[in-house]
Amino acid sequence: MNKETLRKNLREIPDFPKPGILFYDVTTLFKNAGCLTMLIDELYEMYKDKGITKVVGIESRGFILGGALAARLGAGFVMARKPGKLPAKVIEETYEKEYGTDTIQLHKDAIDENDVVLLHDDLLATGGTMAATHRLVMKAGAKKTFINFVIELKDLKGRKAFPQDSDVTTILEL
């Protein structure tokens, strides 16, 4: 995988969603067939021998690579969503954000004690959403978990949001 190619195709948007924030837009990686293939290939190589039975993608950009990777690994795909988006019985986890709280949900029957789960999202910043999703998957009884992001913003120290023994990987560090 050529990380420089990925970096060159990553769009940076200053002052989004508010002044002072530099937003890294992964949609430019997804629309480029070569970059998309590189990402899926890299993720597959990272996780092909881990016994993954379910991939959990976090709303909404985590759905894109999460779904493709689940299919490639021969695993099921589970969506972690905001309240009101999943139609069956759910379990949920509420977490603190910079300005208030938010909640993430999974279908109650999505994960069980036999599952080895890969949690995937596009960006690790402060880690709040993924940490809440990780707690939710553990409450559901997952046997083992792995956590992955396309991009990690190192200066924000988002890895601190996870237990020390968590297996957290990223493709690009910025």
What's the helix and strand layout?
Blueprint: H1 3-9, E1 11-14, E2 22-25, H2 27-31, H3 33-47, E3 54-58, H4 62-73, E4 76-80, E5 90-97, E6 100-107, E7 116-124, H5 128-139, E8 144-152, E9 168-173
Parallel strand pairs: 3-4, 3-7, 7-8, 8-9
Antiparallel strand pairs: 1-2, 5-6
Helix pairs in contact: 3-4
In short:
Helices cover 29% and strands 33% of the residues.
Shape: globular
Structural class: alpha/beta
Radius of gyration: 16 Å
Topology as H/E string? HEEHHEHEEEEHEE
Average pLDDT metric: 96
Strand order of the largest sheet: 4-3-7-8-9
Low-confidence stretches are none
Main pleated sheet: 5 strands, parallel
In DSSP terms, counting alpha (H) and pi (I) runs of 4 or more, how many helices? 5
How many β strands by DSSP? 9
End-to-end span in angstroms? Answer: 17 Å
Describe the structure.
The protein is α/β, with parallel strands linked by helices. 29% of the residues lie in helices and 33% in strands. The strands form three sheets. Strands 4-3-7-8-9 form a five-stranded parallel beta sheet, sandwiched between helices. A two-stranded antiparallel sheet has the order 1-2. The mean pLDDT is 96.
